[in-house]
């Protein structure tokens, strides 16, 4: 009986892994409302915030590039244990940070850990769910990720307003919970080979040659721009809110991030049955409204409008991500699909990292408002060009 409780093939393992995934993303996003606090005693400018953001995405990219082909359950378990230990170490660095490069190192490490869970952890959870016939496993995984993204900044923001300094109070409980997950996961062993994920979901006509590459390119563009706009809220956004909107509440900063991710998951649940074309249109329009609302919020110095902007940005990012993956699944052959999916996410992360870095750099030299205008101009340019390319290349399959 004890052995069954420590099986990596069990629903207990699925629950532990899902909770661990949630904790990793909470830890990764808890720093969002804290950047302005760290600036007060570590002294770095908005370029530094951009560097911190880039470090996180470099870590994710390294993990995505190197771990996507790992299939053995025992190897995956060891990698996830390393990721959990790395997350604990990153939390310790955040708790005790006295130098800028400690923050950069912590963000790089947490990026590696998040990337490891994306590359290996999510597939393992889904495989266990299939074997145990757990319904809605993908939804469980999505909720774990998105709730971690949203709750992390809000949790940290509330404690930052209540406790001074808040760092240890924020990250110590997370490190304790992560340690419990490490202890439980370390005692689990796979009892039989986990089922392989099938690739039969591609149900549309495959596209070869130049059209395949074109579809990949435009879906990357459709995802990358809204992803970068959403990334603003968890990078330079807190600085914009506290500086231009004269709001010193970290709870508001974290709450705006929570609104964005909450809107994203609600939109996926409510709009998942729309056609791909309608999802692309909704995502493109919402991302555009979100970007324009950011500009209006800066001009009017309104945190309320910034909150509205975060809702549209969350829906835009969520819908373009969902529709982009559906386009690739529906139209590309499986050999191309795996490469294209990796390109899809890496392209989004790369554009977000570079654009946020330059946003921070420009903000240090031109001011936050001007830098945001330049940043959104390039986001709109990419989004418009990608939407035009999508309209030209993509055709909905005929329904029976």
UniProtKB/TrEMBL annotation:
<dbReference type="InterPro" id="IPR050171">
    <property type="entry name" value="MFS_Transporters"/>
</dbReference>
<keyword id="KW-0472">Membrane</keyword>
<feature type="transmembrane region" description="Helical">
    <location>
        <begin position="374"/>
        <end position="393"/>
    </location>
</feature>
<protein>
    <submittedName>
        <fullName>Putative MFS family arabinose efflux permease</fullName>
    </submittedName>
</protein>
<feature type="transmembrane region" description="Helical">
    <location>
        <begin position="303"/>
        <end position="322"/>
    </location>
</feature>
<keyword id="KW-0813">Transport</keyword>
<keyword id="KW-0812">Transmembrane</keyword>
<dbReference type="InterPro" id="IPR011701">
    <property type="entry name" value="MFS"/>
</dbReference>
<feature type="transmembrane region" description="Helical">
    <location>
        <begin position="103"/>
        <end position="126"/>
    </location>
</feature>
<feature type="transmembrane region" description="Helical">
    <location>
        <begin position="343"/>
        <end position="368"/>
    </location>
</feature>
<feature type="transmembrane region" description="Helical">
    <location>
        <begin position="79"/>
        <end position="97"/>
    </location>
</feature>
<feature type="transmembrane region" description="Helical">
    <location>
        <begin position="249"/>
        <end position="271"/>
    </location>
</feature>
<feature type="transmembrane region" description="Helical">
    <location>
        <begin position="166"/>
        <end position="186"/>
    </location>
</feature>
<keyword id="KW-1133">Transmembrane helix</keyword>
<feature type="transmembrane region" description="Helical">
    <location>
        <begin position="138"/>
        <end position="160"/>
    </location>
</feature>
<feature type="transmembrane region" description="Helical">
    <location>
        <begin position="213"/>
        <end position="237"/>
    </location>
</feature>
<feature type="transmembrane region" description="Helical">
    <location>
        <begin position="44"/>
        <end position="67"/>
    </location>
</feature>
<dbReference type="Pfam" id="PF07690">
    <property type="entry name" value="MFS_1"/>
</dbReference>
<keyword id="KW-1003">Cell membrane</keyword>
<dbReference type="InterPro" id="IPR036259">
    <property type="entry name" value="MFS_trans_sf"/>
</dbReference>
<dbReference type="GO" id="GO:0022857">
    <property type="term" value="F:transmembrane transporter activity"/>
</dbReference>
<feature type="transmembrane region" description="Helical">
    <location>
        <begin position="280"/>
        <end position="297"/>
    </location>
</feature>
<dbReference type="GO" id="GO:0005886">
    <property type="term" value="C:plasma membrane"/>
</dbReference>
